[in-house]
């Protein structure tokens, strides 16, 4: 299977069919709901599909493993595509809500969901506040996408034997709880960081990174795919040992892009994380390395949505000169090495392991 082409096409097709089936329900409710389906299609078209890809190769790594016993009622390829598509819909819901929380204007170089609804309000010259309408409507869109991800997951699990379906559903539920909790810890840290000792900032930033992103981006999709194939405890443990450090490296790269990324490539303004006040591992390392006077300036500017270009450049220079960027790059390399090492003795398919190694490079060497 040509994973980079066919898997993306299969997932895109499944998502398109699913939205079309729900669009008929929306149309029965009222024509004013047309944007829900239209915006959903836009947000779910394209993208890197990392979660879908890790889910697929988690399934392949187990189902094609040498001497892996056939598991009655395990998932078929069609079922796996549906679960992978459910992960993509869940991710879209998380992004819609995340953009509302962070007050982000753009997503992948286009207006974020709440800004699109705000534009509808403005174009229609409707009553009330456009910003409030946009945030309220986008919140409901995110909720709808969350529900849709559950529906598509259930459609796939209905075709599996009860033990397989129960294990997969438990993993999905745990992922959903963890990422929501991690998101809350993220916004809590942005506002409550002064109430904690400076020495604990790094540990708290790492906790946010693991639960908001690392587990949900890579470890859980991998585990979900493996469980669909009836993975043994040894196989599941090996994939988690690969997935968690790789997820950490993935988010560390994302944190660097959030501060230094090229807006024309990332689709987000340069220095966006600085304006949002993200208390990331990168910021924790910077604060620990700079003198108190520079730390006060950083703390004063971080989280100011009106930061000028020159102020962003100044903060970027402070972060670079602190040595924090080099530390992050070293942490990325270390976590990738740990992840790859976990695959070497693992009782998994050789082809899938090779693909997972390629994915490890793709998610940590990216520019957007």
CATH architecture term of the largest domain: Orthogonal Bundle
User: Count the helices. How many?
Assistant: 16
Main sheet summary: 2 strands, antiparallel
- What is the percent of helical residues? over 70%
pLDDT < 50 runs, ≥5 residues: none
Going across the biggest sheet, name each strand in turn: 1-2
General shape: globular
Percent of residues in beta strands: under 5%
Alpha carbon gyration radius:
21 Å
How many separate structural domains? 2
Tally of strands: 2
Q: Class of the largest domain, according to the CATH hierarchy?
A: Mainly Alpha
Listing every helix as H and every strand as E from the N terminus to the C terminus, the arrangement reads: HHHHEEHHHHHHHHHHHH
Mean of the pLDDT scores? 94
Classified in CATH, the superfamily of the largest domain is Farnesyl Diphosphate Synthase
- This entry's quaternary arrangement is single chain
> Span between N and C termini?
26 Å
Protein name: Polyprenyl synthetase family protein
InterPro entries: Isoprenoid_synthase_dom_sf, Polyprenyl_synt, Polyprenyl_synt_CS
Family: Belongs to the FPP/GGPP synthase family.
Pfam families: polyprenyl_synt
